[in-house]
Amino acid sequence: MEILVIQVLNSLFYAAVLFLIAAGLSLIFGVMGIVNMAHGSFYALGAYVTAWSAAAAAGVMPPAALFIFLPLGAIAVAVIGLAIEPTLIRPFYRRPEEYQLLVTFGLLLVLEDAIRLVWGGTPRTASGLVDSLGLLQIGGLPYPVYNLAMIGVGIAAALGLWAFVYRTRFGVLLRATAQDRRMAAALGIDVGRIYSLAFGLGCFMAGLAGAIVVPSQAAVLGMGVEVIVLSFVVVVIGGLGSLEGALVGALIVSALRTITIQFWEEIELAALYLIAAIVLLILPTGLFGKKA
Amino acid sequence: MDKEQMHQERRGFLKQFGATMGVAGLGAAGLGTVAGVRTAHAAAPKGNIPDRPIKMGHITFLTGAAELLGGPGQHGHILAQEEINAQGGLLGKRKIETIFADEAAGTDSNVKEFRRMKLSEKIDLFTGVISSGNTPALGPVAEELKVLTLFNDGCTDFLFDKAVPNPKYTFRVTNIQSADGVTAAIGAATHWPKARRIASIQPDYSYGRNVFEHFVLALGKLVPGVEVVSESWPKLGTTDFTSHITKILSAKPDLLVVGVWGGDYVAFYKQALRYGLFDKMKVATTLAFGGYPHAIGKDHPEGVLAGVHANYHFLYPSAERWPINKSFVERYHKRWKEYPSFESDGAYTALYLYKQAVEKANQLVGGWPDDDAIIAMLEGTGINSPAGYLYIRADNHQGYKDAVTGLSKNLPGYDFPVWDTSSIVTIPIRSITAPPNWAKPGQGHNESTAAADWIKKTWPQAKA
Q: Which one of A3, A222, A265 has the shortest CB-CB distance to B237?
């Protein structure tokens, strides 16, 4: 029984991380029409920035205060995203999609190398944050309270994003731009600014995912490439460009992953791709994607 | 049973392999040339030596999670290169120039890059390579293009069992892969002879499969009634292990064998620690201490069998018994401000092995020796490397040295865990690898490796 409870929690924690990444990926695609191959690298950046700043401050701040570096890590990634969008992405909006894929893939490689150049090859960690919250006993097995808290952050982020997109004026502008960029521009919306902010918001989400992951795991080279593949499976299942899709897709992928690991690990990846293939065959735009 | 009696029993158990526990372990000292700056005293080169540089290609992981292994390897190579060049180069004349490339580009790209290095850069020697997925692809190319090749790692048995069964140009310096799982099994059986219920977590590719197979096979022979109760196969690059850990806990094993390595291992142990895994079972790893030594934090639990790919840990052989290692570690630390790993030793020793063969061949034939002469001097040769005595078997061009493993412990003076000196198990490599000319897979047996067949047929079965 305690195993079941912990596996459900494991699955929810992983789903929270996947959702944050996939939601950003979907948001950027939905608004800007760009498939951002480098999105996983922004996730890795969030992890590295958070681990690095938390380690630097560990001596002078109490452990509980280090939690400030989780949102700060995400904000730092958003700022980097806001700088990259106008310089690197914007010149390619009018080009065919393959150029956008190439430039974001190039960005992925550049960011991977930049991370190694700045932080070196040794994994970075911030385990102090996990330890500061202590452990919960579930039927005699310990479970970190931190992971529970981060499931809460995932839920809060999902609600916050929903409210932001559907309940604010900026959300209306965002959706208008996503639906018809030219009409939005004709109505006087500063589409360039919307694009920048959407990209920054997407990067913030990815950075936040990296920030919440790093205390419980570690920031390692290649982590961005590892996660981007699963994030694409999430958005393929949920529907590229849909936030609800990212949420449902993340829950499905994470639950399926945990179930296969527990019972039949050899088919873990096969099962994920199989589900993605079945969804594509029956609903080519994903569960929540817009019909073409 | 009191502690002393238990200790005696363990030593008795180890005796069947000629193995030892504690600092005493160090195989027979070698006959070959001493690696390091001392070789300056070699006999003066004979004949006319050209002074154009020797070109080397070195492919290793410079990015990705495996940089944790590739980085130290590159550092070892550069240190040896700088030392040799400071003495005027090979045979006092030929400076070494190395072209590096990133192994993370993938097997196909590595093969292309290797060809490019030979065909357009005209390399004289190829070194490096970490992944067992890559050496079986690069070995045949080395033979085809006739490039003298000293692989650093990529230690799969498959390379010399199947991919290049009759090597001429291909050699490999670090221990063969099957020795890794077997070493972990002997280490586990020594320290925890009562463990019966085994769980396993391995990266899902050839390395993990090899470790699992040979660990279970060897432990099954050493300990009666061994049973595998749980298998986990995360793919390489996994960082979320929580579901795997919970699954392992649910199987209630006595012992967990871990082949997960590099950045993956760091993420694994951090999560396993907070999930209480280390309190519930013994843990035997094959590569926990395989990357940069400082990659593992002080929060790493003590008493974990911390594998080094059955090759080398920088504190052993100890300074008193093996000054070569002490001197190597000092020079390495001075150059890189970090401690060496087994990959550092492998890459460093590979260059000195080449240097030694070139010098010997020069004494025989004069001038710059051709590859055939160098190869003849590499086959069956030995060298005193930082890790101990290394010899290159003539039949399969594989490097062999005593296998080591030990239990993790936090000692003052280091920012990272090292080995508990009294726990180190040293095993003569001939006790755990198939002897020369043992039938290869497909020649009378269909085991995955010659080692597996040899263990099945010759090791006695322990009785309850």
A: A222
